Amino acid sequence: MAGWKKLDEMTYLGKPHTRVDGVEKVSGKAKYTYDIKLPGMLYGRILRSPHPHAQIIKIDASKAKALPGVKAVLTDIKGEVLFAGDDVAAVAAVSEAIAEEAIKLIEVEYKVLPFTVNEDEARKPGAPRVFSTRENNLGRKRDKSEGDIEKGFQEADVVLERTYRMVVQVHTPLETHGCVAKWEGDELYLWDSTQGVHGVRSGTAKALDIPENKIHVITHNMGGGFGSKFGPKSYNLIAIKLAQKANAPVKLMLDREEEMLAVGNRPSSIQKIKIGAKKDGTLTAFQMESYGTGGIGGGAGVPQPYIYHFPNFKVNHVDVHINAGPGAPMRAPGHPQANFAMESIMDELAEKLDMDPLELRLKNDPNQTRQKEFRIGAEKFGWKKRKPGGSGKGIKVRGVGVGAGRWGGGGNKKTQALVSIYPDGAVEVKIGTQDIGVGTKTIVAEIVAEELGIGVNDVTPLIGESDYPWAPNSGGSTTAASISPTIKRATDKAKEKLLGVVAEHFGVTPEHVVLKEKQFSVTNNAKKKLNWKQACALLEGQPISVLDNWGEGLSSRGTAGCQFAEVEVDTETGKVDVLRMVAVQDCGLVLNMLTAKNQVNGAIIGEIGYVLYENRLFDPEVGVMVDANLENYKIPGALEMPDFDVTMYDESERGVIGLGEPPAIPGVGAIANAIANAIGVHIREMPITPDKVLMAIQSRKEGKA
Amino acid sequence: MKDFKQKSGISRRNFIKGFGGGIVGTAAVTSSFAKGEGKQVGPHGSMVRGPGKVKISLQINGNNHSLEVEPRTSLLDAMRDQLGYTGTKRVCNRGECGACTVIMNGKTVLSCSMFAMDADGAKIETIEGLAKGDELHPIQSAFVKHDALQCGFCTPGFIMSSVALLRKNPAPNLDEIKQGVSGNLCRCGTYPNIFAAVDDAAKTIKRGG
Under DSSP, is residue A548 helix (H, G, I), strand (E, B) or coil? Predict the structure, then answer.
């Protein structure tokens, strides 16, 4: 199978191209799960636990059932609730307002149990247990070591010990989790705001013992997920059961508070790190003990030692459970956490060694791509102008920082695509992937257009249905590398068939037929010509349809990136403004330069939120999240935007690699280090809010830092 | 509702603004003195309606709609659920994110934080009304051109805020653009492209495009 064309021979790929669904999305025509309305549709609503931990003794739903307009009630969801916001009961009613009233009429008798919402407390012996069946709150352990850690520290001239803390971040997609469930006989139709139509289908089949072929999951447009929307989740199963009970379609969209409590978050991370290095900056040893909490879920592990080469290391991690909603993968799970701690301690080490932080990185980063990216970025950024930490004068001081990231990505071998060329000239591709906002639908069309030499708008990309050929969940930055090779292979085979038909018509062998700009011609015979429509008409009623699989040689895994940040800190108010970000990122063959750069911008904005603003806060007395809304849980807005300078580092020869996650990492440490460079003291706890900045400045004045 | 505003000097919308909360808190206030169907005189001499359904009319994108809403129904829900204008999005449902922004009588309002009956008789512009047939509004075209969207869920709100901004200030600088859309939140992180799109659209409109 042929490889990708060279970059300069390509018409669409590698170049900027507007989204195929752009017009739909700017005109309000794009239908999301939230917008689905079916005849006779009911509205579902979940009653959630007000207690962080309790046993459900009794549920009396008689008043709810008696409320006019209520069509179904579910009370047998669970016997014990593990966090404030956990599912207790659910209703379906003819309007949202009636459903809301109905859940308030459900009387629940709880036996309130001891709880813990703090990972530091939860890990102590004797802490209230989150799971009554387990001995303590310690979950999955991750231990890893290499070399000889003792020897490594003996070889070191400088040893630093620091502890870094990161709080829980919430995904906050603008479209909340939710679905519409509709039964037609024994067939189930499920419109779901999900990152995986096939994952939801197979998971629902298993959970409810429904044959897989009877389930049809649909996600034509979805309003963001960032890793939180891998289903099915309990709201799906509840909606499906309500629909069955009420014998009517049920729409169940979570509200903003539910979204923040119950369906995913990025786990916290506390990393106690000891690092050793020689005078010349050679790293010798890395030791870490870490823990973090994904609530009743897990996933708080961090891939330390991150980026830089340590011949000797030892890392021990344990997940700690608390009575909070489950963690879920969030844009490069574990990596931003690892990045913050590693990049911070590297800068602290550089200060001790009196080295330039970038020089220290270049000395210890074994990745050749990133070596080049660091240099490109430093040049664009003007790194040479960096001043020593805390040397700025005046009320507003500036600082700069740098950080790095890596990610795997790569394609899923099971991916399939179906490409069809119709006798009327229409071209269509069906693939059961979904566009979570990154522009997947556009690259699906672009690849077919590129290979066939037709216009992007000549291709109908059909995605977002589980009835289409299998594609993986949109996660781990694997979508592009899974679907692109698959679509290319199916398209190439379809094209081959069409060339065969044309060749037969001309009475020549297929290698003599050339297809260029929708024109078929025969080499050495200028008279034999057909346009696209004429050629397709030769198909005589039967379309060409090719179902093909993913294949090697068109994609890779492994990306590298770095980012540089400049910030301004107001030393009187503690407010931090990120002024500019310079990013250099590799993702192999860039499929669409316009949407790719948008991805990088967006990832950087996510980093800004993580470093400066976002913090899931609990009231420790009652165990309830106090900022479960968009007013108190701060995500970055227009006024917080820096200038962006994004360079896509060209490694197109490696084929397609994913991009969603890689750029969501490097800037975390870069921004934190820029703040440290500005004020002359490192703040080791995120988010770096004004109170912490002022405390740090004060501690420096007092000579404590 | 005009009566209510004139006599009490405070509209429910302003009340919500001052209260800083959503509809839920104010609905209770309404129902505490609204005991019957139709218009009544409230404790302060103001006219009250509800709690039964209330007849209202809305002119949306030039189309006249007559509908009956419960007093507690927000303008957003009335438009989305009863009239099918689903382009306007519900995200936070308490006036924090701007996704439900529409233009009412020439001014942007957060349709999630306004009662439908308070919009009785109003002229409302939504995302669906900007294009003339297949011809997009210059701001819409600029959003596509500059890829000022990803998932697209915040996009209608941003576009409506941008339309209002450019009507008020046809040549905004970057800071004014940022300020103009600062009531809208995007999670995918498309802000820089939104700024570029609004800037470009302003120039296009100035050229008469």
Answer: strand
d(CA B175, CA B192): 12
Query: What's domain B2-129's architecture?
Result: Roll (3.10)
- Mutation target to probe the B interface, by most B beta carbons within 10 A, among A15, A20, A26 is A26
pLDDT, averaged in runs of 10, over chain A (705 residues): 90 97 98 98 98 98 98 97 98 97 98 98 98 96 98 98 98 98 98 98 98 98 98 98 98 98 98 98 98 98 98 98 98 98 98 98 98 98 97 96 96 98 98 98 98 96 98 97 98 97 95 92 90 96 97 97 98 98 97 98 98 98 98 98 98 96 98 98 98 97 79
Say yes or no: do domains A117-167+265-347 and A367-407+556-701 share a fold.
Answer: yes
Q: Name the minimum distance, in Å, from the CA of A530 to any CA of chain B.
A: 32
End-to-end CA distance of chain A: 61
* CATH fold of A7-29+411-549: Aldehyde Oxidoreductase; domain 4 (3.30.365)
Specify whether the CB–CB gap between B2 and B56 falls below 8 A: no
Give how far Cα A115 sits from Cα of A260, A268, B186, Å. Answer: 19, 18, 35
A27, B127: Cβ pair inside 8 Å? yes
From the list B126, B143, B178, the residue facing A638 with the nearest CB is B178
Q: Which residues does chain B have within 8 Å of residue A220's beta carbon, measured at their own beta carbons?
A: none
Class of domain A367-407+556-701 as given by CATH: alpha beta
Taking contacts as CB-CB distances below 8 angstroms, the residues of chain B near A614 are none
Domain spans of chain B, in order of start: 2-129, 138-206
Q: Determine the topology of domain B138-206 in CATH.
A: DNA polymerase; domain 1 (1.10.150)
Bridge-based pairing state of the strands A215-218 and A250-253 = unpaired
Q: Does A19 sit within 8 Å of B91, measured CB to CB?
A: no
**Who among A28, A606, A631 is closest to B189 (CB)?**
A606
Record: contact A601-B147, CB cut-off 8 A: no
